[in-house]
């Protein structure tokens, strides 16, 4: 039992460190953009980047609000059957692949398809 508690404690420490990083990054971008506008380095229109970062933080915080009940045992999962055949379909990207080569163009370069097509 002591090992399980220690592993759980380590998992929480990693989670807090990851959360700190994930929240610090958008704050750093926001601060940099605002300072650049105030210093006249960027035009005020560049504050659109700030809006994007604020939206990212809102999503992160919403994820935390969703996860909070799991820590207190207040989130109940309901298991139900799912037809995986209809959901699997063809892959939508996210794989490294080599396309066909042609003698005129040489080998086709490797590229990463979008994970969120």
Instruction: Give the overall pLDDT as a whole number.
Output: 76
E-strand count: 2
Helical element count?
3
- The level of helicity is 55-70%
Please give the CATH architecture of the domain at 2-72. Answer: Orthogonal Bundle
Using the alpha-carbon principal axes, give the shape. Answer: flat
Strand order of the largest sheet: 1-2
Rg estimate, integer Å: 22 Å
Q: Which sheet architecture does the biggest sheet show?
A: 2 strands, antiparallel
Task: Give structural notes.
It is a single chain. Mean pLDDT is 76; it is low at 109-117. The longest helix has 37 residues, at 2-38. The protein has 3 helices and 2 strands, in the order αααββ. It is mainly alpha-helical and 117 residues long. It has a domain at 2-72: Helix Hairpins (Orthogonal Bundle), CATH 1.10.287. The chain has helices at 2-38, 48-72, 84-88, and strands at 96-97, 111-112. The chain is flat. A two-stranded antiparallel sheet has the order 1-2. It is 57% helix and 3% strand.
């Amino acid at each position: 039992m002591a090992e399980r508690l220690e592993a759980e404690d380590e998992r929480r420490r990693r989670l807090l460190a990851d959360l700190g990083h994930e929240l610090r990054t958008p704050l750093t971008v926001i601060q940099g953009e605002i300072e650049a506008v105030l210093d006249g380095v960027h035009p005020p229109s560049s504050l659109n980047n700030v809006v994007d970062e604020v939206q990212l933080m809102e999503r992160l915080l919403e994820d935390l609000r969703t996860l909070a009940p799991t820590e207190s045992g207040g989130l109940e999962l309901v298991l139900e059957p799912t037809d995986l055949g209809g959901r699997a379909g063809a892959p939508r990207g996210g794989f490294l692949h080599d396309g066909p080569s042609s003698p005129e163009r040489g080998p086709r370069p490797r590229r990463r398809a979008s994970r969120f097509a």
